Amino acid sequence: MIRVVLPAHLKVLANVARExxxxxxxTATPEAVIDALEAAYPALRGTIRDPATKRxxxxxxxxxxxxxxxxxxIDLPLPEAVASGVEPFIxxxxxxxxxxxxGRPLAAYAAYASLSAHLVPTERRRVxxxxxxx
Length: 134
Fold this sequence. Notes:
Blueprint: E1 2-5, H1 8-14, E2 19-22, H2 30-40, E3 60-64, E4 67-68, H3 80-83, E5 89-93, H4 106-118
Parallel strand pairs: 1-5
Antiparallel strand pairs: 1-2, 3-4, 3-5
């Protein structure tokens, strides 16, 4: 069983609360998780990845075990903690533009706020977000 945390707008489309639990056959990879998610919730088809090319949408990010998997190969096996359901596979809708007063990208704050709002308090951990190059 894989636990998947979706951003608020995708939860509304899928008509789910908090997180989604999926059963996978074979190796747990981001591609397999998205395939199972789109099969279980057809309203999500085309929202996370392009239906023609199967590439991740530009403002969608994947996280697992505090790691940003967004730019990793889509067929890379997920960490064992995610594959076993201990940790969630997290889909975040990123934002673009601007910097906060401290110089960090606003998207980093929005992504962290979105992530922490969807996790129960015992699961909250700081997500290592890459700083945008200046």
